[in-house]
Amino acid sequence: MKKVGENPPARFPDRPIAEAPQPWWVAKVKPRMEKALAFDFLNTGTEYYLPLYTHVIRRRDNNKPRKSILPLFPGYIAFSMTTPHNIFITGRVVNIVEVRHQKRFVRELTQIQSALEKGVVVEPCDTAFEIGQTVEVHAGPLRGLVGVVARIRDSDRLVLSVDGLGRAMVTIEPAYLRPVKRKEGDDEAR
User: Fold this and answer.
1) CATH architecture of residue range(s) 4-117
2) Which residue among 26, 103, 135, 177 is least packed, with the fewest CB closer than 10 Å?
3) pLDDT digits (tens, 9 = 90+) for 85-130
4) Helix (H) or strand (E) holding 36
């Protein structure tokens, strides 16, 4: 595991994403090869953007926090190049995805970069939640709380109905939630 200071920069070169003179592409990389490819790009002077976030977990033995710097989009890295045919030489790339809507892609990357630079907590969320779904809070001050998704508000927050608290409504970030798998014989969500 790399120390925090040993990670590649998220953006190279340090300029706005929209100022890239060549088109953007997305490389699908082998597992856990995002940072290694970023270092390859850095060494060859290839423009790239690899959004990174800080993931904090608590050790079980002493409850001390352990920080990891992880890619926001595991398995992918955006890069700017005229023709990406030489990228396979690294042995880290599985496939290249052509970005057909360059303006939208640049706008979305710029928004992510802006949010991360402003210190907004941005974490991957690979789960879409539905109303009535039972979920558990796995991080933050409400860790361990189990509730039912009662409402999805503003597309970035979930409102949980928690029976154990007298059906109180708790608003919580979706990144702190994970679905609860039902066991046979469990009561249906109320």
Assistant:
1) 2-Layer Sandwich (3.30)
2) 103
3) 889 999 999 999 999 999 989 988 998 898 888 887 777 766 677 8
4) helix 34-44
